[in-house]
Task: structure prediction
Amino acid sequence: MAVGHWTLDDISWQRFDPEKVDPELLKLVKAAGMVEYNGGVYADYLCNVFPDDAEFQQAAKVWAREEVQHGEALGRWATLADPDFDFGACFERFREGYQIPVDAAASVRGSRSGELVARCIVEVGTSSFYASMASMTDEPVLREICRKIAADELRHYKLFYNHLNRYLERERIGRWRRIGVALGRIGESEDDELAYAYYAANGDGAPYDRKRYGTAYLHRVYACYQPAHVQRAVSMIFKAAGLNPQSRLSSLVSRLAFAMLRLRSRRAVAA
Result:
């Protein structure tokens, strides 16, 4: 991990207040812990995509260790909130049911620059998600954990963005291509990974149903966001895509995105 990075011992676990645990947020924390704890798998994939870049490989390995620690922190909190929650068993269920092709020899985004754009988009999503959850919860330990993770994810965005600029000097992929990768990765936020993580952590024994568990996860996530979180996320996405993050277009898109989140949240609840 980065020099001076926080550890689990830095969390004020003694401040945990079971009376302030929100059962709906608890479900999200359990699922998020699955995805974060799986960070090592993505580091393997990235090292395969960048086999001749020792600098990036080292950065990816540090990033992955911090992601795994996020999962450990979220899992520990979830166990405090629900002593019957078995993080290890749920994670094994998640790993068995959802796998990514870590042995890929090239980026699924078509270029290394495209891969780094996609990584930036992921960090935008996670940073805004944890910032949103921190503002939603009254439980002091969860709020502390989420703020620390949100700060880490923002730093990870900057890490991938800096490497993106380095690769753009070589590959020079166009702005439209960057926009296409960004939009594609945003669309993948509704893929099997998050739905299956929610199922693995919160399933009631019924068979996996992507639509059911994806809807259950997303409506709870969408309900967390406030306009400021969406505006910041859109600005970061614009920057990664090569667009002006301070433009009127960015402001318009952020308002439309927030309205869409609210609409989809209501539809998910109805479903």
